[in-house]
Amino acid sequence: MDILIKSFNRPYYLEKCLQSIFEFVHGYDKIIVLDDGTPQCYLDKIQSTFPQVSIQKSETYLKKSKAIKAGKSLPDSKIPIDFWIKSATKASDYFVLLEDDIWFTNQLDLSSTAMVLKQQNTQMLKLFWLGNPRLIASKSIVFKNKIDISSPDLFTFNPFLFRWIFIKYKFKIRKLTTLIGWYSEDRFLAYYTIYGVAGAIFSKNYFLSLWKNHNNQTNEPLQLENALRFINKNENATFGNTTAEVLKTGFLSSATNQNKEYETGSFDMLQFNKIINEAWLEGRLGSSGSFGNDLDEKQIELLLKKANHPQVQVDDWKKWVQSFKKQYTDFGCIID
After folding, report:
1. Pairing mode, if any, of strands 238-242 and 147-152?
2. What one-character DSSP code corresponds to residue 182?
3. For residue range 258-271, what is the model confidence (pLDDT) as tens digits?
4. How many other β-carbons are positioned within 10 Å of the β-carbon of residue 233?
5. Cβ-based burial of 298 (10 A; exposed 0-12, middle 13-18, buried ≥19)
6. By the 8 A CB rule, do 103 and 11 touch?
7. Cβ within 8 Å of residue 331, ≥6 positions away
8. Alpha-carbon dihedral 326, 329, 334, 336, rounded to 10 degrees
9. Alpha carbon distance 191, 173 (integer Å)
10. Which of 211, 213, 287, 336 has the most crowded Cβ, counting Cβ within 10 A?
11. Which letter does DSSP use for residue 73 in this model?
12. Phi-psi bin for 200: left (phi > 0), alpha (psi -120 to 50), beta?
C-alpha cells in the first residue's frame, strides 16, 4: 500500500509527518510527497533526511515556489486537484492519504489492513476523527485486526434529497426540514462517515469517484453527493475506522491565507510560514516534540518575537490559532 502526502510550504510539519511514518507504520510500499510549491531548499533538506521518500511536484510548483521564496503573494491560487488525481491513479489499489500537518501516533500495519479492506469491500477507512463520534455513524459488520468495518447509517442515500435537506441553506428550506424532523446537525455530520479530505485509507476507485466534475474546486457537498452515487452503484460497499485513532493533526498554522475568517489584524500566514520555515532549515526550531503533541508553541512564540514582523505578531497568531481550533470544537471535536 502506498502513502501519499499532500504538501505545501510547511516542511516543519512534513518532517514530523515523515518521522511518524518511519516510527509507527509497517507494510507500506512507497511514500510519495505531492508538493505544490515548497521552495527547493526546504525539499532538499527533507530529501536528505528521508532519501527513501519520493517527492513529486505539481505543474504549478515552479511559479508558486518562486513567489514563496521571494516573499510575494501567490500568483496562482489554483488547487492542484488534477495532480492529486493523476497521482492517485498511479498509486496502489488502496492508499493512505495524508496532508503535511498530519502524523501517526500509534502502530499500523498496512499490509494486513489492506487484506481486511479487500475482503470486506471497504472503500474508506478513517484513521482519526478528532474524538468526535458524530463523524462516525454506522452499523458494525466486522471487527478484525483492530478495524471496525461497518455499513453507513445515514438519513438518506439519495443524492438529490441529501442536497435538498442538508446543503440548501435558504432559511425557509432549512426551517421546513428542521420543523418536520428531517434536518439536524447530527444527521448532517453523519455523512462524514463516508467522506474525508485526508487522514484515511481510500480505495482508488472510490477516491477517484469523489472528485468527478470537480471543476478545480474542493466542493464538499458535491463530493458527498458523488459518494452517495458510488454507494448506490456499489451496494456491497462498506466503510470503517480503526478502533482507536492512529493520527493527529496540527492546529498552529495553515498552508495559505485562504482562511480569511480566522485572520486578526494584519496577520499574514505566508509570512508566518516563511519565518518558521527558515528557523526549521537553520536548525533553530528544534525537535518537533513527541508524536502525542503538536509543535512547541513556546518555541514558536520566541521565534516570532525575535523576527518581530509587523504582520506576524505573537498576539495575532494566538488569536488566529484560537479561532482555527474553535471551528472544530464548536461541533464536538476534541483538540488537546
Report:
1. antiparallel
2. -
3. 655 555 567 999 99
4. 9
5. exposed
6. no
7. 132, 134, 185, 189
8. 20
9. 19
10. 211
11. P
12. beta
Q: Tell me the helix, strand and coil percentages in the chain, rounded to 5.
A: 45, 15, 40
Residues (pLDDT < 70) of the chain are: 74-76, 169-171, 258-265, 287-289
CA distance 250 to 293: 9
DSSP class of residue 74 equals P
* Alpha-carbon distance values, 110 to 29, 95, 115, 118, 209 (Å): 9, 9, 9, 12, 23
For residue 190, which amino acid is it? A
C-alpha grid cell, residue 292: 502525542
Amino acid 168: pLDDT: 74
Q: Which pLDDT value is given to residue 146? A: 92
How much is the pLDDT for 90? 98
Nearest to 39 by CA among 79, 74, 91, 83: 74
End-to-end CA distance of the chain: 30
Give which of 42, 27, 24, 30 is closest to 5, Cα–Cα. Answer: 30
Q: Closest by alpha carbon to 34, among 71, 105, 82, 77?
A: 82
State the burial class of residue 295 (Cβ atoms within 10 Å of its Cβ: 0-12, 13-18, 19+). buried
Q: What is the pLDDT at residue 30? A: 98
| Owner of C-alpha cell 441529501 | 162
pLDDT of residue 217: 84
Sheet of 147-152: strands edge to edge? 54-57, 31-35, 2-7, 94-99, 200-203, 122-126, 238-242, 147-152, 138-144
Under 8 Å between Cβ of 42 and 135? no
Place of cell 471535536: 333
E-state strands within the chain: 2-7, 25-26, 31-35, 54-57, 94-99, 102-104, 108-109, 122-126, 138-144, 147-152, 200-203, 238-242, 247-249
331 DSSP 8-state letter: T
What are the backbone angles phi and psi of residue 114, rounded to the nearest 5°?
A: -60, -40
Grid-cell match 458510488, residue found: 230
List strand residue ranges (DSSP E) for 43-199, in order: 54-57, 94-99, 102-104, 108-109, 122-126, 138-144, 147-152
